[in-house]
Design goal:
There is one protein chain. The protein has about 325 residues and is of the alpha/beta class. The protein has 2 domains: about 240 residues, Alpha/Beta hydrolase fold, catalytic domain (Rossmann fold, 3-Layer(aba) Sandwich), CATH 3.40.50.1820; about 60 residues, no CATH class. Helix content is about 35%, strand content about 15%. It is built from 11 helices and 11 strands. The strands form 2 sheets. It has a 9-stranded mixed sheet, sandwiched between helices. The chain has a two-stranded antiparallel ribbon with strand order 8-9. Helix 5 runs parallel beside helix 8. The N terminus is likely disordered.
């Protein structure tokens, strides 16, 4: 297996030669105009990962600074990290905040390939536009992707797992899966979508302004609102505990990569048993418990979450 540095160079070289197939508002084409990213503090870019798939990301901060890649949870978009992205840039990091394949503005796989290995390769391509040292921050599916990428040779210098462990509480997994697959025909209005979210997660106050939901929903030709992701990704083995536990057994990064677990104390996905299992596998594991937060830690307690991540990175991977 090639080293992390060699792999990054290979992917970066491949990225410069591929044509893109998606258009968003005023994006920078990384393959053709990468140099212009360094001239701007914040920009939306497209990153080619195959000849037909591009990943969309927001970047902020000084090009060449230590890089932090933010990977959102399944069913979310990069906008869940907007404030974290800004604060990391203000702290001196180069932040890359990307939409996972099949989510948000990133392309959908025509063949429904949403395997964890493919997602890990996407993450390696995204990370390759940054610099070393490199930190990966991932929530739920984004965190699983980060662990798989680290096990496949990406070799981060720091890792932050947001309410995700290899040994997840399966009742919690079943609950969120049931919610995410419960509305195949979408919603007639933003109000109807907000009602469904509130029924699933009553502890989070229902927002008075529902315009923010437009970032997580797409309006179809039938004028109904559906989640802003390809529903076929739900059929992929995204969190098979047998796969994840075997992967962690074979991983070589667990003894050397500084790792932080940010746990929502009201989460039904990460329990004490899962935390103990991760601590056994990652002896130097640090844990930040965020009171009052559920599985969507960054959304529930954003300021506390951002402070925990920035403090950890400042200690293990300083920005200067």
């Amino acid at each position: 297996m090639p080293s992390g540095a060699d792999r990054d160079k290979t992917i970066a070289s491949r990225c410069t030669s591929l044509r893109l197939n998606r258009t968003i508002k005023n994006p920078v084409d990384v393959g053709e105009r990468a140099g212009k990213v360094s001239q701007m503090d914040h920009q939306t870019i497209r990153i080619p990962v195959t000849e037909s798939i591009s990943i969309v990301a927001d970047v902020a901060g000084r090009r060449g600074a230590p890089t932090v890649v933010l990977g959102h949870g399944g069913g979310q978009t990069r906008h869940s990290w907007d404030k974290a992205e800004r604060q990391l840039a203000e702290a001196g990091y180069f932040a890359i905040n990307y939409d996972l394949r099949g989510h948000g503005d990133s392309d959908w796989s025509s063949d429904a390939d949403y395997s964890l290995e493919t997602r890990a390769d996407d993450l390696a391509a995204v990370a390759a536009i940054g610099s070393r040292p490199l930190a990966l921050v991932g929530a739920s599916l984004g965190g699983i992707t980060a662990m798989v990428a680290a096990s496949r040779g990406l070799d981060p210098d720091a890792l932050v797992l947001v309410d995700v462990v290899p040994k997840m509480n399966q009742k919690g997994v079943a609950k969120i899966t049931a919610f995410m697959t419960a509305y195949p025909d979408g919603f007639a209005s933003l109000e109807e979508a907000a009602d469904a979210i509130s029924a699933y997660y009553p502890d989070r106050p229902r927002p008075k302004d529902l315009s923010g939901l437009n970032k997580n929903l797409r309006r179809g030709q039938d004028n109904r609102f559906r989640w802003h992701w390809d529903p076929r990704w739900m059929d992929s083995p995204r969190g098979d505990p047998r796969f994840l536990l075997k992967m962690m057994d074979d991983a070589d990064w667990t003894d050397r990569v500084p790792t932080l677990l940010v746990r929502g104390m009201k989460s039904d996905m990460v329990d004490d048993d899962g935390v103990a299992d991760l601590r056994r596998r990652v002896p130097h594991l640090e844990i930040a418990d965020i009171g009052g937060a559920g599985h969507m830690v960054a959304g529930d307690r954003n300021d506390e979450f951002n402070a925990a991540v920035v403090d950890f990175l400042a200690r293990v991977m300083p920005s200067s």
